[in-house]
Amino acid sequence: MIPVSSKQGYTVKYPIAKSLLHYGVIAASAILLAFNYQLFVVKNGFAPAGLNGIATMVQYKTGFSIGYMSLLINIPLCIFSYFCLNKEFAKRSLCFCLVYSFVFLYLQSLGLEAFQYDAQGHDTIFPCILSGVISGIVYGICFQNNASTGGTDIVSKYISTHKPELNFFYVTFCLNALVAVSSFFVYAQPGPDGALVYDYKPVCLCILYCFLSSFVGSYLISGTKKACKFTVITAHPDEITADIASKLKHGSTRITAMGSYHREERTVLICVVNPHQIVDFKNILKNYDDTFAFHETVEETHGNFKRIK
Asked: Distance (Å, rounded) from C-alpha 40 to C-alpha 213?
């Protein structure tokens, strides 16, 4: 039998350990993003998403480090977030920004030129794809842990909080589009006659980076938890529920209903299955006449839902 004091001790320690785990994951993702920028972004003449994209362009034009610029931008934004959004979100975002900035500055001092992906102006789509996917993973991890990478993430979260009808990722993408337009002018190169030659390549790379990072981040947040809900109106509820249980290993919920046209009593079955089981579910329904069904996508499942491999 565990003493009351021990129970209280576990009650106190568990939230602390869980919180430390969240901060550890956030710090690890910040380190990953710092490596991502240093190895795949800075040498390849394009600006990534968000205010870090602005910091990248500033470093490109002036030599002022992304690490210092990130601190100057994100510390005020995290303070703003602390008072105007959510205190825990602000603290975790600040943790990310500090770790990211200091690790990036440290990586700059190490001299990692031998490990950097330098496309030298050719095939720069490959470092763009690599960096976009990695950034998307980082964004997904951060939002799963109630944090952000700072910059436009905080700005768009504030906008979507006060304007909930605006989709968060749409707001972020619009803000990133401004960075893409700016990169058209920043990465212009002098031609043979000394006049600046403008190129759409940095713009395209920035948009591709934004799309990949947003898509991967969104998928990590919700895509892996998607399911499919079937609503079945039938005169054979016992047979169908038995087939669902034996073939798909899922249960279902019965609702007694009445048709509005013939005024006949029917049973409505509601069943949530894994996406890859849609075809199997349809094959079950083919065996029964007097049955009508439709299905829809469930963005996320909670509670006692078994994912069948």
From this structure: 14
Read off the tokens for 50: 């968000």
Those residues with Cβ within 8 angstroms of residue 152's Cβ, 6 or more apart along the chain or in another chain: 49, 50, 51, 172, 175, 176
pLDDT for residue 297 is more than 80: yes
Tokens for 203, please give them: 């713009």
Q: Check: CB of residue 124 under 8 Å from CB of residue 201.
A: yes
pTM: 0.74
Per-residue pLDDT band at 196 (split at 50, 70, 90) = confident
Contact, 90 vs 102, CB < 8 A?
A: no
How many CB atoms within 10 Å of residue 114? 5
User: What would the mean pLDDT of 125-146 be, rounded to a whole number?
Assistant: 91
The CB density around residue 32, as the number of other CB atoms within 10 Å, is 16
180: its two tokens: 């893409």
**What is the C-alpha separation between 277 and 294, in angstroms, rounded?**
14
φ, ψ of residue 199 in degrees (nearest 5): -135, 140
- Tens digit of pLDDT for each residue in 66-84? 999 999 999 999 999 999 8
Whole-Å CA distances, 162 to 17, 44, 82, 159, 193: 33, 37, 15, 5, 51
Contact 269, 230 (CB under 8 A): yes
Q: Phi and psi (nearest 5°) for 112?
A: -100, 30
Structure tokens at 53: 């994209």
Q: What distance in Å separates the CA atoms of residue 36 and residue 139, rounded to the nearest whole number?
A: 13
Burial of 199 (0-12, 13-18, 19+ CB in 10 A): middle
Would you say the C-alpha torsion 272, 276, 281, 282 has a positive or negative sign?
Answer: positive
